[in-house]
Amino acid sequence: MARIIAGSHKGRRLAAVPGEGTRPTSDRVKESLFSRLEGYNAIDGAVVVDVFAGSGALGFEALSRGARSLEAVDLAEPAYRVLTKNAELFAGSGQVSLHKAQALRYLRGRTGEPIELLFLDPPYDLPEPELTKVLTAAAPQLHEAATVVVERNARSPEPSWPGGVVRFHEKTYGSTRLWLAEPGA
């Protein structure tokens, strides 16, 4: 079972998504990622979108650490049920909106405030061209100071960043690789 590492909900346990095709972000990776994000001041007051959310662990961690709102998106029924259960930690706050939707379709139809922190943690078997389409759909919705986090298998190639989005950091943790990107020339 995953847990929230820091912030207002520190120590709370999150239900995990059962089944194949999902794998939780380890606490070690999450701690390192969020330490870096806090160093960039990317969390406090942010509008967060967690696509391929699974249990929502990344988005809920951001909320616990001071993000303003979370849009958590996943199409798989088991993941959506777990998202609903985990969102109960933030019940009544108006901070969480859950969307049972295909990632690309959701991003293409999304309205609302610009995305300030975007998590993309797709199933490792998602083909690279599909990830590129999702990144391309998200790009016009990014706040000028947004941070994009992509988590993949360490053997995966670097994502194909759409025009106007540039990688500024990459780190491998065992079998997991993270890329961080931002709007830029």
TrEMBL record:
CDD domains in the cross-refs: AdoMet_MTases
Broad class of enzyme this protein falls into: transferase
EC number: 2.1.1.171
Keyword terms, alphabetized: Methyltransferase, Transferase
The keyword Transferase is annotated on this UniProt entry: yes
UniProt GO molecular function: 16S rRNA (guanine(966)-N(2))-methyltransferase activity
Domain of life: Bacteria
A Pfam family the protein falls into: Cons_hypoth95
Species assigned in the record: Nesterenkonia alkaliphila
Keyword Calcium attached: no
PANTHER family xrefs: METHYLTRANSFERASE
Name by which UniProt lists this protein: 16S rRNA (Guanine(966)-N(2))-methyltransferase RsmD
